[in-house]
Predict the structure.
Amino acid sequence: MRLQKNKNIIKRKRNLISKNSKNDKNSFGKYFIKSLYVFAALIIIFAAGYSGYKSYDYFFLNKKVFKLKKIEIIGKNITGKEKNKIISQSGLFKNENLININLKKLSRLAASNRWVKNVTVYRKFPDAIVIVIKKRKIFAMVVYKNNLYYVSKTGYIIGKAGVLSGYGYPVITGLNTDDSGVYFKKLKKALSFLRISSHSILSELTGEIHVEKDNGIALYTRKGLCIKFGIGGYKNKLKTLKKLFLEINAIHIKYKNYINLEYKNEAVIKVNKGSRVLPAGYKAEHVSGAIFK
């Protein structure tokens, strides 16, 4: 009986081993087939990628398409000379591949001109580069070491003044100093006054802004009239000046080319000797000469 039981146990173990062996063979076969599928898929993906890269390399990197034919420069008041300067500084050349152009580098090169405030660059397919320029506006001119330079509202030195852009801007003087900190402090003060006065009766009359030794402001009109504004309170002083001009026109007074507005709410002028001060609406009636003394 024991012998028979042992034989049955051995037989069952053999059957179990045989089943496990078959299962292992089946699992290996399935794994092998899956591996083949994955390998084949990888080969296809690699082939497609390589083919795509070669096509990209052929058509784009090797300059087969999208060749640079023209450079468009857009912006207000840009002269032909300025456009040519930007193109020469850009480093671009005809038939260059558009895809290879570094737009950031191109923007930096275009902005290297001091009169360029903002620049935007983009590709215009199939064959152009567009450079959009916003120029700095000339607000005034400054005297530095006996030369005239254009300056923006914020005090940015744009460049040397010349015939091309003209000389019809207010000139700021009295800045000469070896201390750059003092120089720009005075320049800032003069520009601040000029911004305020540009909305006043003097908007079209200003010829020169002079920063005096005490940091007061003196203005000279294009006709040679000197107006001393002193330090501070410029908005109120400009209002006083407007009232003064109205009074001068109303009473037909003749005065020397000098007005002092350094004192608060007061205007001092020097009347020409013998000038007749007449009331508004004066006609031809006789007035005693004593009033002119």
Q: What stands out?
A: The chain has three domains: 1-56, 70-135, 167-292. The helical segments are 2-61, 80-90, 103-110, 180-197, 234-251. Residues 70 and 91 are 13 Å apart (CA to CA).
